[in-house]
Amino acid sequence: MSLELCHCMNVFPGTTPEEKMRAFAGPLADLRHMLPGAMSRPFPVGVWIDAATASALQASGRVGEWTARIRDQGYYARTANAFPYGVFHGQEVKTAVYHPDWTTPERLHFTTAVADILCELMPDGQDDGAISTLPGGYKEHVPAAKLPALAANMLAAAAALRDLRDRRGKTIRLGFEMEPDCLWESVEEFAAFYNRYIRGHELAEFIGVCYDTCHQEVIGARPGAGLDYLAAQGIPVVKIQLSAAVRAPAGRAAKELLREHFQDRVYLHQTCAVDAAGKVRARWRDLPDALAAELWDHDWLCHFHVPVYLREFMGGLRAANAELLAVLERLQQQPAPQCVLEIETYSYNVLPDAVKSASLAACMQQEMAFVQEALGTR
């Protein structure tokens, strides 16, 4: 079985071409040195290209030069993350990460710019790529009246991707990444939109799903059911992001650990309370809202991307990884070589020190080993 595995580079701060280049010479190079033979062969990455970086490269005419430097160092990419548009580290992000959304021309133009850059990073002989993007927008910010415009922008992006294939021979597809409290948080919600606006359109082949295991875990989905549903609906999964959430068991003590160690001012941590049968009993838009509710008697699932190899940590907190493990088991049994596999632990920088590895590169190495062992590819 041959499945390509990479890490998402949205774990690295930086919104300029040169800042992004430092990750290739720093932590990613350290990671390659830890992996037998990785320095002697091309190494896959999942690039995060923000709007400022894309604009700077295109305005200066340096896309080819920048991507050549990356490839000369021995890296390539089949996937790009075009979800975060702007700064994603070191300052408050919260709901700003969902803007501009897919109702705007800014999101459309940014995404097509990322596609042009990704095309330059795709290796010869590998003609399928994927761009992950936000699930339409934040649900309360996208009224139903804007859905036709949103769909039109999606199809305009698909038209640009078809043109790119015609010109360059590379097929890049969009993967809309379902997330709690967004326009599409469940597979059923995305399928309903897809069936109304996308299915049957001549450009439908360029539109699919980026399936994030952490996000499906947090909404209380039955492990593995989402991929089955999408397959039954005939909706392509173009990318799978492998990630785990945090589970705090019933009782106040574990929730106080969340309060002390997992609240931060940067990211939104949507939280659900689930009963013993896994049914969602309450949900909150962010961890502080959950803590204020003082509903201690149920397990909580918190949207906080923790390293995928974690099990139990910090006095009873656990990795919420049933969805992750179900997806890995399915991939082990039914490989999907055209689907990009990407480990995404962007919140590493705000993890408590007790949960971090000796270095970011060491964490990435442990995550890769965990996934490869689960897939039977070590």
UniProtKB/TrEMBL annotation:
Top-rank taxon: Bacteria
Any GO MF annotation of the entry: zinc ion binding
Record's protein name: Uncharacterized protein
Organism: Oligosphaera ethanolica
